[in-house]
Amino acid sequence: MKLSELKTGERGVVVRVNGHGSFRKRILEMGFINGNVVNVVMNAPLKDPIEYEVIGYKISLRREEAAMIEVIGESEALAAEQTPNRASGFSQEDTSCEDADILAAKMKALAEERGHVIRVALVGNPNCGKTSLFNIASGSHEHVGNYSGVTVDAKEGRLRHKDYEFILVDLPGTYSLSGFSPEELYVRKNLVENTPDVVINVVDSSNLERNLYLTAQIIDMNLRVVMALNMFDELEAKGDELDIKTLGQLLGMPLIPTVSKTGRGISELLDTVIKVYENADPQLARHIHINHGAELEHSIDRIKLLIQKNEDIRYRYSTRYLAIKYLENDKDVTETVEKLANRDEIIAARFEEQKRFESMMGTTPESAIIDAKYAFVKGALAETYKPCTTRKKRRNITDRIDGVVTNRWFAFPIFILLLYLVFECTFTLGEYPMQWIEWLVEKFGDFVSTYMKEGALKDLVVDGIIGGVGSVLVFLPNILILYLCISLLEDSGYMARAAFIMDKLMHKMGLHGKSFIPMIMGFGCNVPAIMATRTIESLKSRLITILIIPLMSCAGRLPIYILVVGAFFPKYGGAVMLGIYLLGIVLAVISAKVMSRFIKDDDLPFVMELPPYRVPTAKSVFRHTWEKGKQYLHKMAGIILVCSIIIWFLGYFPNHKKYDTVAEQQENSYIGYIGKAIAPVLEPLGFDWRMGVGILSGIGAKELVVSSLGVMYSAEEVSSAGGPDGDSNRDTAVLADGTAGEVVEGGNTMLQRALQKSITPAAALAFMVFVLLYFPCIATFVAIKQEAGGWKWAIGSAVYTIILAWIMAFIVYRIALLFL
Ligand code: GDP
Ligand code: MG
After folding, report:
1. Which residue among 136, 256, 260 has the greatest number of ligand 1 atoms within 8 angstroms of its CB, and so is best to mutate?
2. How confident is the model at residue 813 (pLDDT cuts 50, 70, 90)?
3. Which residue puts its alpha carbon closest to atom 16 of ligand 1?
């Protein structure tokens, strides 16, 4: 009977929990598992929720929830007692005990017996051998035919295996669950309404790609599934190779090879069904989500949340499944969904999401969902399935391109060539708009300084705000171009292949192929890169990726390298820069390896989707570029602006008018005090106190290091030219952005000459290393906190990078001293 049918004061023993995925899991976690006693504390006929007590806890369940729990009630146990010779653990000797105990024991025994009945549904494509499997397992003689559509309605058969009774249902064959044909609707209805305990997905192993498409749809429904890799004999005969274990992990279900003509594997299949039914091993059957891509997932989530407002639908359906099907315009699901209380809201949301998606991606959600499922299947098979090479097969365009770009010999050269092109575009094409922006900023600064009244406010606007933000703004074109290239690669489908070919390498670092794209994006700006880790399903890989992204040298650090390299190593510029980038990468690899030892291991494999190649639509490329660029702009409008003002303030006060030279004034400003305070820590690295100030200002954003060095050293250089205010400070602004190569005298900017005078080449090298590694900048720090889920990760990352920076800079400095 149902738990909801028990009255106040009665008790029952749980047999099983019906219903669906996450709901079912929650109920199980509350203690409603086979054999546990439930007391009804309060069940008034019209009252909802009902109050129960199970394993000592009081729990209230809604009536619909309680109806999903099957129990043995006292009345049932008593009725069964009248019937003699029932197999049960209950023995006559127990009469000395109290009646209540005997009854309880009886109930438990009955519950266990009932719990040993497993209802199994066979689902699969037509002609994959379901009926043969059904016959051989249950000993029936249903008609087997080598053509589609033999089984038109469900046949039921029973069998015993171990001490379990199986009720097998042979369902009609379908290629999909989209609800177009009566068979598809029939199968779907059966899965939802009769809630089989376990689904056996029968698959024709010799035709995996098509068969797994159905599997991908079953995965959406969040059922407990075991896959029978039927016709395994044919796969073997063809000489194909399949990594069954990995494929099972990727799909989140156990896979058992079977040959239903001969009965091979059937017993193991049934064993596995029992294991899954009893939840013996959570790794065996885990719920996975098929990733439909960021845009679709956004739409799915929106609709799912709206559907979830209706409590009672959750017991019967996976709301994610409903949302996906609803977006696909599925007729049957549309009917169900549009009966809900908030139907207007949901209808409007679907309309909006479909319109948004179509205008951006140039295709309907419906076809994109199908593509995503095939991409999932293709990705899973690419990792696990090797067709025998001597066989010729027809190939479509995507397959042909894949044949080249994932080819054993060509994959890496093509990949590196593309990466090279991306960086080349970023830096060479970016040069032009960079110069325009530089020019604009300079003119704007001039303009403002001519028309504003002399005084602190003018200095703040010209030097603090325009100088500070301007020196960062110049990098915007580089960043946008980088993201444009990345969006192009992503939307065309190539990035997925890049992740795929990098997967093996990344695994060696304890990461996942999907970690690779965010790492590349980190060369632009760490903030959007950290956001991009959201596509990584494994928490562990995601965390590590987030933590090593700060070691990817972002564009903000570039001006510092340009400055220092230009001043000290003009002959070996390229090599030194490459060395710095490589050092970041190498340290990232080592860090990842070390961290993967310490971060809790949930390293589950996930499918890397391989979507078909497509010409990207302009709209979606620009939208994606813009979205990433926006995060960078945000950083500029907020943190960089604030930090520029703070740094200016610290450098300007106190004693602004007291000294004759800017150098003296700087030295006696707040920033000078702070710089001197931390100088002893930096001394072993060969840095002077001004560099300490530069490093401090880089906490706001690394771009700021150059502009504040400009302020500090210009003071020294031009101190003779003018007073503490007026002209000399104007020069600092020019110096700050002049470092990108403008104000050149004898091949070097003033700042560069000032640096040459103040520090040694060895210290300069160490400085670059320090800047590369230390503290990830405020915006990244905040992003880490948000994405990794807690301050502890952000703080941990800050501490780690600062220590790493110090140690590496020290080593580099000491070694460099020997040679330079
Ligand atoms: P259904 O449409 O899924 O019910 O498939 P059937 O059970 O009717 O089987 C379709 C055809 O495949 C029949 O000719 C079976 O004899 C054959 N068949 C079923 N299982 C296997 C198997 O494991 N190996 C091979 N080689 N053939 C099989
Ligand atoms: Mg059949």
Report:
1. 260
2. very high
3. 261
Q: Which two tokens stand for residue 563?
A: 């400055």
Which residue has the least CA distance to atom 2 on ligand 1?
Answer: 127
Distance, in Å, from the CA atom of 739 to the CA atom of 558, rounded to the nearest integer, reads 11
User: Quick check: CB of 127 below 6 Å from ligand 1?
Assistant: yes
Cα distance between residue 587 and residue 595, in whole Å:
12
What letter represents residue 25's amino acid? K
Chain mean position to CA 26: 24
- 130 CB within 6 A, ligand 1: yes
Distance (Å) from CA 136 to ligand 1 centroid: 11
CA dihedral 383→388→389→392, nearest 10 degrees, is: -110
Q: What is the pLDDT of residues 40-64, one digit of tens each?
A: 888 877 777 888 988 888 888 888 8
SS3 content of the chain, % helix, strand, coil (to 5): 65, 10, 30
Rounded to the nearest whole angstrom, what is the distance from the C-alpha of residue 138 to the centroid of ligand 2?
A: 14
- What's 262-311 look like in SS3? CCECHHHHHHHHHHHHCCCCCCCCCCCCCCCCHHHHHHHHHHHHHHHCCH
Is 144 a pocket residue for ligand 1 (Cβ < 6 Å)? yes
Percentage of the chain lying above the pLDDT 90 cut: 23
What is the torsional sign of CA 396, 402, 405, 411? negative
Strands 198-204 and 225-230: parallel
Tens-place pLDDT, residues 119-150: 999 999 988 989 889 988 888 776 665 444 44
Give the whole-angstrom CA distance, residue 391 versus residue 91: 65
Cα-based torsion angle of the residue sequence 80, 82, 84, 86 in order, rounded to the nearest 10 degrees: 10
Counting residues of the chain whose pLDDT is more than 70, the rounded percentage is 88
Cα separation, 446 vs 426, whole angstroms: 29
Q: What's the whole-model pTM score?
A: 0.73
Q: Cis ω on the peptide bond leading into residue 126 (within 30° of 0)?
A: no
Give the whole-angstrom CA distance, residue 209 versus residue 231: 14
Expressed in angstroms and rounded, the spacing between residue 242 Cα and the centre of ligand 2 is 26
Over residues 575-582, the mean pLDDT reads: 86
| DSSP structure string for 376-436 | HHHHHHHHHEE--TTS-----HHHHHHHHHT-TTTHHHHHHHHHHHHHHIIIIIHHHHHHH
Nearest CA to ligand 1 atom 18: 129
> 231: helix, coil or strand?
coil
Nearest-10 Cα torsion for 259, 261, 267, 271: 60
Half-sphere exposure (Cβ direction) of 786: Cα atoms closer than 13 Å: 14
With a 6 Å cutoff on the Cβ, whether 238 touches ligand 1 is no
The pair of structure tokens assigned to 531 is 């956001």
> E-strand spans in 107-204?
117-124, 155-161, 164-170, 198-204
Residue 733's closest CA among 321, 494, 521, 448?
448
DSSP 496: H
Q: Is the CB of 236 under 6 A from ligand 1?
A: no
Substitution candidate for ligand 1 out of 152, 256, 261 with most atoms within 8 A of CB = 261
Q: Is 132 in the pocket of ligand 1 (CB under 6 A)?
A: yes
Report the C-alpha gap between 215 and 373 in whole angstroms. Answer: 9
- pLDDT at residue 232 in the model: 93
Tokens of 123: 């689902």
